[in-house]
Each structure stands twice: as structure tokens, then as C-alpha cells.
Design goal:
single chain; 89 residues; alpha+beta; Alpha-Beta Plaits; 3 helices; 29% strand
Length: 89
Amino acid sequence: MVNHSIAHQLLDDRDDEAGQWIIVYDFIENKPNPNFWANLKRVSETHGGSLIQYSVYKTGSLREAKAVKGLVKHYGGEAIVFRCVESNI
């Protein structure tokens, strides 16, 4: 029996939608567990999203946005997901 990481379990969600998604998260009471960073890296390597800054993640996939939000919640943080439209101002 294969023991999948929490990242892979969260990415099993089949619903996806293309677009630009920003996830803003915070760990209010404590710092993130080192496993959070390892799992976040797994998600980004699988789907190509990336950190914009320490607590802001950008992706082109709703499925990846849901997975990142799930990771944050799993490790005791809070997250908000925004759908974005890029503007060339």
C-alpha cells in the first residue's frame, strides 16, 4: 500500500478550471511546520505554481489553488483564494 503525501491527496481533486489564482495565507499562532514547505514544493513541482512572496502563492489552476489552501488549513493556518484578471496598465 502506497502512503501518499498530503499534497498528493489534496491534488486528487478532479475539478479544475484554468485562470489566475492567488492564495494569501498566514500562520497566526506559529510558524509553518517544515512538512508544509515540503508539501508546498511537491504541489508547485507538479503543477507549476510558485510563491510570489513568503505568504502569497500564484497558480494557473483551480485544483492547485484548492490544494494549497488545503495544505495551509491542514498545518493550522488560514488562507483566502482570489481569482485574478491580469491587467496591462
